[in-house]
Amino acid sequence: MTKANKVLFITQEITPYVAESEMANVGRYLPQAIQEKGREIRTFMPKWGNINERRNQLHEVIRLSGMNLIIDDTDHPLIIKVASIQSARMQVYFIDNDDYFQNRLQTVNENGEEYEDNDSRAIFYARGVLETVKKLRWTPDIIHCHGWMTALAPLYIKKAYKDEPSFRDSKIVFSVYEDDFKNKFKDDFTAQLLMKDIVEDDIKTLTKPVDYLTLMKLAVDYSDGIIQNSEKVNQEIINYAQEQGKAMLNYQSTETYPDSCNEFYDKIWENPK
Q1: In a 3-state reduction of DSSP, which class is residue 60?
Q2: What is the pTM of this model?
Q3: Taking a C-beta distance cutoff of 8 angstroms, is the pair 91, 75 a contact?
Q4: Of 130, 163, 148, 168, which Cα lies nearest the Cα of 219?
Q5: Is residue 151 situated within a structural domain?
Q6: How confident is the model at residue 197, as a pLDDT?
Q7: DSSP at 106
Q8: Domain extent for 61
Q9: pLDDT digits (tens, 9 = 90+) for 221-238
Q10: What gap in Å lies between CA 92 and CA 87, rounded to an integer?
Q11: What is the pLDDT of residues 14-23, one digit of tens each?
Q12: Which member of 77, 78, 150, 221 lies 3.0 to 4.6 Å from 145 by CB, making a disulfide possible if both were Cys?
């Protein structure tokens, strides 16, 4: 049995809860494959407003819900829901909130326009996952983040949550996809990130206004390993990760991807950095 036994997946999309895509398929099948290799997993995604709760049999986990997260000086209730993919023997936890996710689609609206508060939604999602894992009293060895909506998780884990027993020894893997966003984040985005043990010097790479490339570089800064998950990604991100000396896993075919990820987790876990 490998030492890196527990893997937390923080994911932007998972099918069948949202439409199939490269990321949604990875979100669905990679955790199952890793679980079948003998590791213990937990999987999270946002409770996007286009997810049919009745059809997918989501239900609220009362013992995990009820916390308020303060973002931009406003309290936002954290609601946790769960559903099961029976064929995979896999549970999926959903981060929900009336303001950020209910009655709204994923990262763009019905007209294909990006939501103006996607930056705050990303903050809420990352913090919501970490607070929920704390409540679960679960200690992941590897935390694998998928999609730009998860890009703040590495910063929070390595800074704001670094002394928490659940995350003290965790290693972070960040997957880069072709998926991106076009609009720049609001000017006060960096100020919203500052909290316990996160100071301005920790986010100095976030030049304003924050765009997709800048956000990805921040995720790279606080990750232990980087995976190129799409055949075509912004090459500047890959170049930056290489310049930072990050452990890298190049793009893999669908057939080799689960085995390569499994081996990569052990490589990251054993790396003393």
Answers
A1: strand
A2: 0.96
A3: no
A4: 148
A5: yes
A6: 86
A7: S
A8: 6-270
A9: 999 999 999 999 999 999
A10: 13
A11: 999 999 999 9
A12: 150
pLDDT at 1 over 90: no
Q: What is the pLDDT of residues 143-195, one digit of tens each?
A: 999 999 999 999 999 999 999 999 999 999 999 999 999 999 999 999 999 88
Q: What residue type is assigned to position 208 of the chain?
A: K
Q: State how many domains the chain has.
A: 1
Contact (Cβ atoms closer than 8 angstroms) between residue 60 and residue 80: yes
Closest CA to 222 of 181, 161, 173: 173
In a domain, 1, yes or no: no
- CA dist 220 to 60, 66, 77, 237, 242, Å? 33, 32, 29, 8, 10
CA distance 189 to 145: 21
Q: Is the peptide bond before 165 cis (omega within 30 degrees of 0)?
A: no
Find all residues with CB under 8 Å of 235, minimum gap 6, and list them.
none
Helix (H) or strand (E) segment spanning residue 96: strand 90-96
- Alpha-carbon span 35 to 52, nearest angstrom: 26
Burial class of 152 by CB neighbour count within 10 A (0 to 12, 13 to 18, 19+): buried
Taking alpha carbons only, the member of 34, 215, 255 closest to residue 122 is: 215
